[in-house]
Amino acid sequence: MRLALALVILALIAGWLLQPQRAGPFLLKRIGLALNLEITARSLDYRLRGTPQIVLVDLVARRPGDTPLLRAKRVFVSLPWRTLRTGGDDFTVRRIELDAPVLDLPALQRWLATRPPSGPVRIPRLTNGLRVRDGRIDNDDWRIDGLAIDLPTLHPEHSAQARVRGRYLDAPISIPADLSITVAQPSGLLAGTPTQVTGRGQLTLVETDGWRVPAQVVLSGPLRISKDSALLQPAKLGIAAHYESGATRAPFRLGLYGPMAFNNALWRFVPVTVVLAGEGAIPSAQARGSLSVGRSLTLHLDGELAAWPQAWPTLPAPLSASKSSLPFALDYKGAPAFSDPASLSLRRDATALALQVRVPEILTWLDAASTGSPLPPLAGKLTAPRIEFDGATLEGVEIEMSVE
């Protein structure tokens, strides 16, 4: 009799579960209570035959009284029966799909701060991968638009490779990217231990009115993620890029080495070693210093030019005949597109040149070098013990210049 009664009860529960219009709100409410979240969806559909799967439409998850931390037009989850039978001890998920998800990082952090202490966060094993389309990540200072992620498989202890596309926006910065990212051991990222990460692909370093710098990049190093910051130490960043403006193309290669930190919407290389290999008007140089970029760019470099570029104005004698080194110092603080003045000092032997330059104006001059002024637009001071010019020898030279 008891067995018959139990079977009847199970049959009634199963019949109720197979009616999504009744079971859906109940399941979302139970999950929300467990997580201290209000979770709603315009519709919920699930299938228990074969491989269980659930589809949520217009999902909204929020902490009570707070803004939504996650919204999505569609969420699809498929997981094997063994995950359900073991209560998650075998944490395997077949596939996850997210359409137009919007993640609010400040709201997420506020919710995480209310959660009781628990053990390490577990990463599921994804057998058929993760797909994200038309996603967005919002922060107080920056956001990522058009986020698309394709992750074929995932195992917490095995190397994982994903393709990530999107546009990082922090006005006036706008950086579109299409990257392949490899993580040596995904579980290490959530555990807060340094984990080898490599990213390679295409992005646009600068994109502003009239000119842009598209690039191929490779970034690698041990990554450590904490609550609201990330550190890649040491980071190795290689860039093969070219400056584009109208018909002008100026290729260059750039390498950076040093600790790279990200927090408070600010990327920092401090200290950093820089190697630049340029062509034409872009010089080749080596330098050390610091680099910080966010809504503004702060740069300080002390280094040495490999040679005076042939595309630059010809040096007067005896500087043109000298084989001495060309130490320089570069300082900049302003808009990320280098539209504010930069300070540049150069030396060769006893000759010193101190300049104030604006990179966009220099680039415009380079574009019209064959038809415009023989001197670039700049302001500064030249001091030299001796200069030979048009057959005349000048000694104790001090020249203040302003070329517009």
Q: Treating each run of at least 4 consecutive H or I residues as one helix, how many helices? A: 6
Give the helices and strands as they follow along the chain: HHEEEEHEEEHEEEEEHEEEEEEEEEEHEE
Radius of gyration: 29 Å
* Anisotropy-based shape: elongated
Low-pLDDT runs: 1-20
Main sheet attributes: strand count, strand direction, barrel closure: 22 strands, mixed
Percent range of helical residues: 10-25%
Strand content: over 45%
Number of strands: 24
Task: Give the averaged pLDDT, no decimals.
Answer: 83
Question: Which structural class do the helices and strands define?
Answer: alpha+beta
Give the termini separation. 100 Å
Descriptors:
disordered N terminus; single chain; 54% strand; 404 residues; elongated; alpha+beta; 6 helices; 15% helix
Structural summary, described in words:
The chain is of the alpha+beta class. It contains 6 helices and 24 strands. The termini are far apart.
Would you kindly provide a brief summary of this structure?
The protein is an alpha+beta fold. The protein contains six helices and 24 strands.
Topology:
Layout: H1 2-17, H2 20-35, E1 38-40, E2 43-47, E3 53-62, E4 68-78, H3 81-85, E5 92-93, E6 95-99, E7 102-104, H4 105-114, E8 125-126, E9 130-138, E10 143-151, E11 160-170, E12 173-183, H5 186-191, E13 195-208, E14 211-225, E15 230-245, E16 248-263, E17 266-278, E18 285-293, E19 297-305, E20 326-334, E21 342-348, E22 351-357, H6 359-367, E23 378-389, E24 392-403
Parallel strand pairs: 5-8, 6-9, 7-9
Antiparallel strand pairs: 1-3, 2-3, 3-4, 4-6, 4-7, 9-10, 10-11, 11-12, 12-13, 13-14, 14-15, 15-16, 16-17, 17-18, 18-19, 19-20, 20-21, 21-22, 22-23, 23-24
